[in-house]
Amino acid sequence: MPLTTRVDAAVADIASAGGIVRSTTLLAAGHSQRVLDAAIAGGLLRRVRRVWLAGPTADPHRVAAARAGVLLSCVTEARRLGLWVMDDEARAHVAAPRHRGHVVVAPGTVVHWARPVVPRGRDDLSDPIENVLALVASCCPFEHALAVWESAVRKQLVDPLTLRRLPFTGAAREVRAHLSPVSDSGLETLFLVRSRRWGVSVVPQVWIAGHDVDFLVGDRLVVQIDGGTHVGAQRTSDIEHDARLTLMGYHVIRISYDHVINRWQQVQGVILQALAQGLHQIRA
What we know:
alpha+beta
């Protein structure tokens, strides 16, 4: 087989493996040192910290992790996986192997040294999802951590039964105890956690008048959380549904992402006023 063909095959294998792979892994897969050297000489691959080879499609975050000898984890990896993460967390979070005495990372990077719940593979540059969740639980406020965990369950990146069997401790064990599959978004998770302080029944995802409502507070107060999709036809449908709810004797309060994240005290005040007036109760 021509050398150029073998070089192309090695580059393709690296691309399919995420763009960056240990050179020893490539050698074990049957790619010769001569092929790898030719790919490097031709600018198709580059060495990262001697033991890694990166192709042109390599994720810069994974390359940086390989260079520092760490793994992407906690909220950084959660965000890369598309999980619900607070927008204001801009710092990079990585996990360092416990045998490493020191790592050199970019200024501001948060390095986690905790023992992993699930063993890490030698070729891993991203922490297994279970370790990511454990670090999120220890690093973030409870309600934010719970939102990330429930997001992972919704995306089927982890199975709740598997989580129950793992030896979580501390904050992760507490988050696991409150894990619920009913919230449709991180905003709903935050709302449900905060509403527990009100001393009234708050039930998520209740079917009323042909649609699920986000929350039914007591018997008659409906709270709907509008995300970015509540525009156009969706907004028209929401208005029509609100009208049907009103005719059936329900009171509807609609809130947004900004209300939950930035103006919670204002929103809570409105809802508590409604509770004080008995709008959540069936009138005699």
